[in-house]
Amino acid sequence: MSAILNNNQTVKILLGVTGGIAAYKSAELVRRLKDFSFDVRVVMTDGAKQFITPMTMQAISGHPVHDAIFDRQAEAAMGHIELAKWADIILIAPATANCIAKVAHGLADDLLTTVILASNAQLMIAPAMNQQMWANKAVEANIHSLKLRNINILGPAEGVQACGDNGFGRMLEPIQIAQELFDEVKNRPRSSISTLSLQKLKGKNILITAGPTLEAIDPVRYISNHSSGKMAYALAKQALESGAEVTLVSGPVKLSPPAGVKIINVVSALEMLEAVKQEVEKCDCFIGCAAVADYTPCHTEAHKIKKTESELQIKLKRNPDILAWVAALKSRPYVVGFAAESQNLETYAAQKLQKKKLDLICANDISQPGLGFDSDYNQILILDKKGIQQTLPRAKKSIIALGILNEIGQHL
Asked: What structural domains does the chain harbor?
């Protein structure tokens, strides 16, 4: 594995280590980043040096550690400018609540925060703090501010913390962070996402359907599919972070909705349709990402069907087509559909786009291993009414969601 830019140059990571107990993981993080062939240099705050020594970080990174704004050993004694120009990505891990607040408000009172203001490098932050601090409204506001500036927030994870508390706030494990950076470099050149298009989502009302629907046969059994809802929830999160007002109508999934998203939980296709009817008039864009069951039993038994020696026959009827219903409205939003296919991807997607009179369709090949249903990754073919095609290559669904929203933003 090798992390390289489009010009075949090794990606340069400037790792900022701040003063939290998770700083002890930073040495492991440097090693993991180097496993991916990143070139890593380290900046440490005074607080970080209380937890791990600069000598340790220097030995593992192979470069001198930086900790002073004015370094007499640096060219023209302006080390912060040299570092700012050197980095392709600035990663803060761990990022304390204090450091996050400084970055959110543009403060520059140490080497790390000065470098951040002086650099146009991509900034990524891995928070690490007590679970109550992470839940604090001030921290929440600072994180929201960073996300609006397209700063990547990695984690935090949930679990037992050094203080004994249990909850969200743990820094992601070093291998997870290194993998995130590698996926970012490999799958999404920064130039491929138009910030201007994403800004057009600000203030827009976006309605998204998510997950499967469950069509009851009896009190125990139902008809459904393998949809996990991950793609729709990624779209909801990224749309929210782009400034949109987001409503998520979700079938049964094992996911927590992003904070700030209006969530409407449903079970069946009919319940999903009724929820959409209540919300669609006020939305600017409808994204039909749910895998709505095409059929439902004609009759639902009041009691569990007992097993017998004979075959069981269940008569099915068509469920309402929610996507087509929205697209047929006289006064309608911009309508985006999804097509999960196992063959003839482009042909079937184009047919669905035309038949249902959609504005845009996102098609994915579910026969590809590791993509689509219940996976964190996807690969999408986008078609519009003019027949224009765009392929979003294999990437995490959060990255795919940005690509889809980037396309939608050009039409709103």
From this structure: 12-187 (3.40.50.1950), 195-409 (3.40.50.10300)
